[in-house]
Automatic annotation (TrEMBL):
It comes from Emiliania huxleyi. InterPro entries: ARM-like, ARM-type_fold. This is HEAT repeat domain-containing protein. It comes from the Eukaryota.
Length: 120
């Protein structure tokens, strides 16, 4: 996780996007292995949340949102409702709805962007 976390600081968007995909894959593999240590998936998701959602690239943030949705971590995923990119907020609304978390959608309902309100 440490190297991938460091890659998130790189200026190259493609490198950061690859790091997001690797972190997500690492979490997915650890979840699939019976008896896997809890630290690896938790650490990978924490980096996806902290670095991925704060990235300057909407694409990198979008990839992090997808992985957080796959993880089912509603608390971390709901932080993406504040994403500056409308498509990312819309995707977050859809993921939260698929996880059956209607109370987390209230911030989206207050969003000034009509497309996000419609998605909610």
């Amino acid at each position: 996780v440490g190297l991938r976390d460091a890659a998130m600081a790189c200026r190259d968007v493609e490198v950061r996007m690859e790091a997001i995909e690797q972190l997500g894959g690492m979490w997915e593999e650890a979840e699939a292995v019976a008896g896997a240590a809890e630290a690896a998936p938790v650490e990978a998701i924490a980096v996806l949340h902290s670095r991925g959602l704060s990235d300057s690239s909407a694409g990198v943030r979008g990839a992090a949102i997808e992985w957080l949705g796959r993880s089912g971590n509603v608390g971390m995923l709901s932080d993406a409702l504040d994403d500056p990119a409308v498509p990312n907020r819309m995707r977050t609304v859809a993921l939260l709805a698929s996880l059956q978390q209607p109370r987390r959608l209230l911030p989206a309902l207050r969003d000034a962007e009509p497309r996000v309100r419609l998605a909610a």
